[in-house]
Design a protein that fits this description.
It contains 23 helices and 23 strands. The protein is α/β, with parallel strands linked by helices. Helix 5 links the parallel strand 8 and strand 9. Bound molecules: thiamine diphosphate and magnesium ion. The site of thiamine diphosphate (TPP) has 17 residues, from helix 18 and helix 20.
Length: about 625
């Protein structure tokens, strides 16, 4: 190969030629990093990236209906593939670009790689302001794409074609880094996309990015082992990092040998199979009584691949042992250091292996293990109880979750993101394998569900994908049903209609606010009804089942639990995206289990209910702790 050779091509052609030759490798497994490019064309990308994609059909182009959705598709794809593969997203300039900002935030917060290529205003400037350009009086060096800066782990604007020679390797370094990964944005001015340059051909050679399994500091490992030996009541909190690192088998060996129980975060659920005797299930604000009781008295928390969101720490009230301390295994020093922990900065799998080797003669006290195993059994009985509720006339959400869990194949993927479902699913879903529970709860972004389901299905075409979505989220973004049908990726969408926000309605009532603004009903005398108005409201003439049908889905409408189970059986063998529509009860709720979430209540109000809620809030707030070692 002539390393001096160059090839004259447009910047956009160079970008796509580069991307299609990027690979990753971990543990000897090599994969192309990008599985193609989603996009919506406009004048800001049609002649640049659009032309390049047309010229290179081997780099598959997919249409989406909405730019936010396509970023969710890419994010879910990356999550399903444990960050080893993702998709590219191209948009036009202006609204197409800013539609991706929400998706970028969701990807970055969840630490999932996506590459965004928004079109940008002319670099040459002479024709400005162009259609959709944001003008500024104080600089010509700003565009709507600057909005991506805080939500991107790497951001660049390519104002000369040769700048991609340095920008693209940086983009790949960040995307493939388990520590730094998230959304990467390369803003591509529409004129520069189409400009030619003599690119060195070496840019387009196949490149394999090794994903390292970094090992933690030896002294810290030894100290961590000593802390574990000294602990009377240790508890593991398994986060998403366990799954992304493919450390679930190692975690199970660690747990089997040492006997430390496991609570799981939203992203970590599935780290340990639900029926393992030391599995305590969900932890934190949406956790089980099993995990939350153990957390309250634990003297040592071993966080693995968790960023300790407020849902996990129950807004810092979860850990009440006066001398509790933390060991954090995390690829990112930033997360490893949280709560002034003993930081084990490294990959979860190899860190667990190293720690296990230092503890090969050790296991926890048999009494503690027996107590924990008893809690596991009691919790499973509670799940059983909720699965068996047959609420009438409208079924409860808990029984519907039970039906989906029981009828779906054990290797299925269940996708969800926002509303009351995440909390209920976190508690009730019996995760049978590490990919069984796909919850976007870093950003809890309404609208992720169906788009995310499509990304998961594209990444795991042999598995059934169940999307569980509320009516609010469904109304916010149902457009990718069309894409799933266009691409023949069958989704099973379970649409739970409770005429508004069951989640925020319950939160509102708990704050003394009567569900104000959370029901889908017609205003009366200019005021939207709340829960005090009871059933006596004018419902909206909306037919979500007909809506789904109009988008091409096969739809089954159900009324009862029995209908629902029958429908779940039918959709196992339907050929295209299928929607099961059912109404469920707004007030029949899965309770909270000995935990809390800090949502501040109005300090001053004339409402006695709000005053009471504020007093209760103050009492709980007093339990919030700082962990200063
Ligand atoms: C994009 C976005 N907007 C607002 C919110 C705040 N929010 C959280 S849950 C929720 C209501 C969801 O309604 P629905 O999908 O019907 O689920 P339900 O609460 O009824 O279970 C809202 C508005 C959010 N999470 N995401
Ligand atoms: Mg709803």
């Amino acid at each position: 190969m002539d390393k001096q050779a160059t090839k004259r091509m447009t910047m956009a052609q160079a970008v796509i030629s580069f991307l299609k030759n990027q690979y990753v490798e971990r543990d000897g497994v090599e994969l192309p990093f990008f599985a193609g490019c989603f996009g919506i064309f406009g004048h800001g990308n049609i002649a640049g990236i659009g032309q390049a994609l047309q010229q290179m059909p081997e780099f598959r182009y997919y249409q989406a209906r909405n730019e936010q959705a396509m970023v969710h598709i890419a994010t879910a794809y990356a999550k399903t593939r444990n960050r080893m593969q993702t998709l590219v997203c191209t948009s036009s300039i202006g609204p197409g670009a800013t539609n991706m900002v929400t998706g970028a935030a969701a990807a970055t917060i969840n630490r999932l790689p996506v590459l965004l290529l928004p079109g940008d205003m002319f670099a040459r400037r002479n024709v400005a302001p162009v259609l959709q350009q944001l003008e500024s009086e104080h600089t010509q060096d700003i565009s709507v794409n600057d909005c991506f800066k805080p939500v991107s782990r790497y951001w660049d604007r390519i104002t000369r074609p040769e700048q991609v020679l340095t920008a693209l390797p940086e983009a790949l370094r960040v995307l493939t880094s388990p520590v730094e990964t998230g959304a990467v944005t390369l803003a591509l001015p529409q004129d520069v996309q189409a400009e030619a340059y003599a690119y060195p051909e070496t840019l387009f050679y196949k490149r394999v990015w090794h994903i390292p399994r970094n090992r933690p500091d030896r002294r810290s490992l030894e100290q961590a082992a000593a802390w574990i030996r000294a602990s009377r009541r240790p508890l593991i909190i398994a986060g998403g990092g366990v799954i992304y690192s493919e450390a679930t088998g190692t975690l199970q060996r660690f747990v089997d040998q040492i006997g430390i129980p496991v609570g799981e975060t939203m992203a970590g659920k599935g780290s340990l199979c639900y029926d393992h005797p030391l599995s305590l299930g969900a932890i934190g604000a949406t956790g089980t009584f099993a995990a939350n009781r153990v957390a309250k008295e634990a003297d040592l928390i071993i966080g693995i691949g968790t960023r300790y969101s407020d849902f996990t720490t129950a807004s810092k009230t979860a850990f009440q042992h006066p001398e509790v301390r933390f060991i954090n295994m995390n690829v990112a020093e930033f997360d490893a250091a949280k709560h002034l922990a003993m930081p084990l900065t490294g990959d979860a799998k190899v860190t667990l292996e190293e720690l296990l080797a230092l503890l090969d003669d050790y296991h926890v006290d048999a009494g503690y293990r027996a107590q924990v195993e008893q809690l596991h059994v009691s919790w499973d009985a509670e799940v059983e109880r909720i699965y068996a509720i047959r609420n009438a006339p409208l079924p409860s959400q808990g029984e519907l979750i039970g039906a989906v869990n029981e009828v779906s194949a054990p290797d299925a993927i269940m996708v969800c993101a926002a509303g009351s479902l995440p909390g209920d699913l976190h508690k009730l879903w019996r995760a049978r394998h590490p990919k069984n529970y796909h919850m976007e709860y870093g950003y809890s972004c309404m609208g992720y569900e169906i788009a995310g389901g499509l990304g998961a299905k594209m990444a795991a075409p042999d598995r059934d994908v169940y999307v569980m979505v509320g009516d609010g989220s469904y109304l916010m973004m149902n457009s990718e049903i069309v894409t799933s049908i266009q691409e023949n990726h069958k989704l099973i969408i379970v649409l739970l209609d409770n005429h508004g926000f069951k989640s925020i309605g319950a939160l509102s009532r708990s704050l003394g606010q009567d569900g104000f603004g959370t029901r889908y009903a017609a205003p009366r005398n200019g005021i939207l009804p709340g829960d005090k108005d009871g059933a006596d409201v004018q419902e909206l003439p909306v037919d979500l089942a007909a809506n789904a049908r109009s988008l091409g889905a096969y739809v089954i409408e159900c009324e009862t639990y029995a209908d629902f189970v029958a429908a779940l059986e039918v959709v196992r063998t339907t050929e295209r995206t299928s929607v099961i529509y059912i109404q469920n009860d707004r007030y029949q709720s899965v309770p909270g289990y000995e935990s809390w979430w800090d949502v501040p209540v109005a300090e001053v109000s004339t409402s006695p209910q709000i005053q009471t809620a504020h007093a209760e809030w103050e009492a709980m707030r007093a339990q919030e702790r700082y962990f200063l070692g």
